[in-house]
Amino acid sequence: MTQLHDISREKSAELFDKAKNYFPGGVNSPVRAFKSVYGTPLFIERGDKARIWDADGNEFIDYCCSWGPLILGHNNDQIREAVAAQLYKGLSFGAPTRLENELAELILSRNSYIEMIRFVSSGTEAVMSAIRLARGFTKRDKIVKFDGCYHGHSDSLLVKAGSGLVTFGETSSAGVPKAFADETIVISLNDKEALVEVFTSFPNEIAAVIIEGIPANNGLLIQDSEYIHFLRQLTAQHGTLLIFDEVITGFRLGFEGAAGYYGVQPDIITYGKIIGGGMPVGAYGASKALMKYISPDGGVYQAGTLSGNPVAMAAGIAALEILVQPDFYTKQEETTKRFVETIRRYIAEKGYEVQLFTVGSIFWFAFTTQSSIKRADDIDPRSMENYKIMHRALLNQGIYFGPSGYEVGFISSAHTESDLDTTVAAVKIALDIVFQ
Ligand SMILES: *Cc1c(COP(=O)(O)O)cnc(C)c1O
What we know:
Blueprint: H1 10-22, E1 44-48, E2 51-54, E3 59-62, H2 77-87, H3 98-108, E4 116-120, H4 123-138, E5 142-146, E6 159-160, E7 167-168, E8 170-171, H5 178-181, E9 184-187, H6 192-201, E10 206-212, H7 225-237, E11 241-245, H8 257-262, E12 268-271, E13 282-286, H9 288-291, H10 310-323, H11 328-350, E14 355-359, E15 362-366, H12 384-395, E16 399-400, E17 409-410, H13 417-434
Parallel strand pairs: 3-16, 5-9, 5-10, 10-11, 11-12
Antiparallel strand pairs: 1-2, 2-3, 4-13, 6-8, 7-9, 12-13, 14-15, 15-17
Helix pairs in contact: 2-10, 3-10, 11-13, 12-13
Bound molecules: pyridoxal-5'-phosphate.
């Protein structure tokens, strides 16, 4: 029976104890509290390339990558230098800067799915604004979201499925008025019948259907391409806007994200995470015709004191300039495929009940025998116990995965072949421990 020594967490535990006096649960975002895995959260001191170091001096190869933004790894030279150069010119002006134009040009000249963009400071803000735009444009109030998709924490979207195929949602957070939940309908992913039913039940009432480019916040729920095309067709037929929330998939699944991946034209696309190169940036984009509804041109109000922040723009430009290099994404995908295939071979050899799903440079371990998982209710919550064991065994071997089995892993361009080989060896041992 394999035994691994637990890493030392003394300093992290001390910091966490202090933090509990300052922040609810000791954190500034809930998943960081390590509630779904063993031990106290690790307080990170620094990162470089694929690695991070915690307060106790433990070193890890990182697959959380700040939850996705760090597609170039930690402390990237170009991003650091661009940010440093901007620091000497000022942090914020609340007036337009050349940098906003530059980032917009970089994106719009290479993304055929949007014609205009508006920068905000987070994914939540991007989605909230996109929903308002859809409502303002269609003059309808209802929106449809999918069970298992996360779109940030704005009120309209903190809604979970009620019972029945097509029902009003129930709030998934205290403090969200019931009236908001009544405007949000939640249905299952990859289910054509539910989609048809929703438009039959609420004709001419639905402003928008919002879906993650590829749902990756509750496992990795890869949709049938045919379903996404069906969704596009049906929304168009009903005068309902289709919003692709590409906060994860944007600039991850290719420079044109999931829209490019499927070859589907959404009406509005939201971005976040990678777009800021590690700084707080979000954005939403659409056709010029739609974007003219946004203030100051149109009547849909949306603003931000730090929107288009010059330091954040400089980071975004530096990051995206690397992503547009030829073959960037092909290489990422090949590296990820090799990593995934090696682990899959081991799983098959051992007959372990675990699947490794992947798309682009995203991967997800699912402790199941099902060969595909496309809906949230296909995930067995009991499988998360196995993830906990794996997570601990990986930390103990210097591999940092996200602290929840519902979270996906990300491979950055800073992960070397040797990093990945080390990780594969650790994953094999971790799986042996799970299934011993
Ligand atoms: C992370 C995420 C958000 C929220 O972005 P924040 O920057 O955390 O507000 C919204 N939608 C999706 C798909 C995300 O992955």
